[in-house]
Amino acid sequence: MSGDAQAIVIKRIKKHGHGGHHGGAWKVAYADFVTAMMAFFLMMWLVGSTTKEQKAALSEYFTAPSEVQGSSPQPTQHPTPVQGPGGASTSMIQLGGSLNLESERAKKLKVEPGEAKAGKEKDDKTKTVDAKTAEQVARELEQQRLEQLKADLNAAIHASQALAPYKDQLLIDITPEGLRIQIVDEENRPMFERGSMHLQSYSTDILGEIGKIINSVPNKISISGHTDATPYAGTPDYTNWELSADRANAARRALIAGGMGEDKIARVVGLSSAVPFYKQDPFAPSNRRISIIVMNRDLEASISGEDAPVPAEASPQEGSSAAPADAFTTGGDVAAPAETAPAPAPAADDSFVR
Hints:
Elements: H1 25-49, H2 52-63, H3 98-109, H4 113-159, E1 170-175, E2 178-184, H5 201-214, E3 221-226, H6 240-257, E4 265-270, E5 289-295, H7 297-304, E6 328-330, E7 333-335
Parallel strand pairs: 3-4
Antiparallel strand pairs: 1-2, 2-5, 3-5, 6-7
């Protein structure tokens, strides 16, 4: 029985969990994707960091490459597939290439005739306004300079022992012509010797001190001499006109000797008794005076252009905003003289200008 039994064979088959190797193709695809994304972001960074001119050059280079390495030809005149008539781009997206750049430049340069005229008028108007503003600023600075000079003169009159005794004979005010300094005669204290152009010693001191102070400003000056109405006697060829001119020149020499620059003199005139200081009495001693004007820009320009009137000060009673014409300055304080009866006419034997 044991020989007839059939042997039982058991076969075990091992099953694997995977169906085999699938290959590495997906890795290649992924690497291509990452490379493409890197190139895309690099391109975006480059586009964002370049100027319009650089974009235009790059666009032109790839549109019409040069035959010679390193050089770029003139912009192409042949329309590309994205160009319309005349080379204009038909793309809705402005890529900043050469054609778009040229179009923007053309728009900026294209100006209608009316707009060009309006622009020119606007520029002219702006220049005019700037010139007026500069002129106004210059006038204000000059006015401040003259006001400061007036204050310096008044301070010097108070501080100087040489000028203090004669402060009643000094009149300082601001006029339309500039700063006016007048040195007038008093009854017993004339500036000049009787009937002469020779200065008294104290008059020389006064003019010397004034000359030093005037020299501190850049303005030029005008000097005029005045007499009273008493006629000059002694010679028919020498009158109050010659005497007033000689006295003005004597004052000029004293100012220069005191330290004032000679180039500051713009005009020296003699006005005789034509412009009296005290009109109510043409024979009053105050009509005999020396007037010094530190000129402003307008008067200086008029004199240099030879179109100003000969009397540089018109009249002491006209245009004076700082002090009345009949007033003397006492260290900057204005005091009007008392109203008195006109002085009597000079005696027959006193025919010289005092």
